[in-house]
Amino acid sequence: MVLVCYILTLAWNSSIILLSLVDPRLQTPMYFFLDNLSLLDLCITCTIKGRLLANLCGSDKTITACGCISHFCLFHWTSCTECPLLAMMAIDHYVAICWPLQYTLIMCPWVCMQMAAACWSSRLSNALLQAILTIQLPLSGHHILDHFFCEIPVLIKLACGDTSANDLAQALGAMFFALLAPIVVLISYTLIARAVLKFPSAEERHKALSTCSSHLLVVSIYFGPGIYMYLQPPAHSTQSKFMSFFYCIITPVLNPLIYNLRNKDVKKAWKRIVQSQGGVQSLKDRHKIQN
Predict the structure, then answer these.
(1) Separation of alpha carbons 273 and 196, rounded Å
(2) Number of folded domains in the chain?
(3) pLDDT, average across residues 37-60
(4) Burial class (CB in 10 A: 0-12, 13-18, 19+), 250
(5) 53 in any annotated domain
């Protein structure tokens, strides 16, 4: 199952990025953020599933302390970057629906790049802070990691010293993760709903809602397991491992599938590519017949 999810995640997320690069109609702010989301899913896949497959297939399941810290630093950076990125995507939908005439002016390429850079850099700084604090914990000797990848709460449990600084940093990071970004999403969609209800025609309302449906579904899949995983009591280790598995293995597969199946622009882009390839092949066949 892990291998199948690994292959599908690589194929589907890479296809979305390549599709937006080759099709000029998809080179918009919405698909710019979608490309960033696909890139994050690829990073999570290579970080978690690659190591998990190595543990499942190989006999040596050990990892050094530095390797484990590097592993969770990469995971923490990429996975938590999705949190503010989804909030930025909600803001993009708000501007597109509530300010359609000023949309291209407000969401210009420079603004989109700044928003994406803020998402990546803010979570990188937090991941480095967590890594520095974890390095200072006494983790000498051999330990059994009761998880399928290196994660901060699991490593903190292995420490035999004072972990108050780590707990505080984790709580502050979880506060941003569980409160600020969902609040931005909630406010954005509240304003979108108020604007949509004022649309004169049912067709316009349906078009606006269909634009947001894929993002709302991805937000629900992301924040649900994520908030549950980071805010539940530490005693429920089995549930925590299951939610981590769902979030790290299943979610990166579902995201591109949701946008591929529910997005008309993506479907049309795929059709144009298939038709263009069919046209090129027919021209080649005609040329061979004439020769």
Answers:
(1) 33
(2) 1
(3) 78
(4) middle
(5) yes
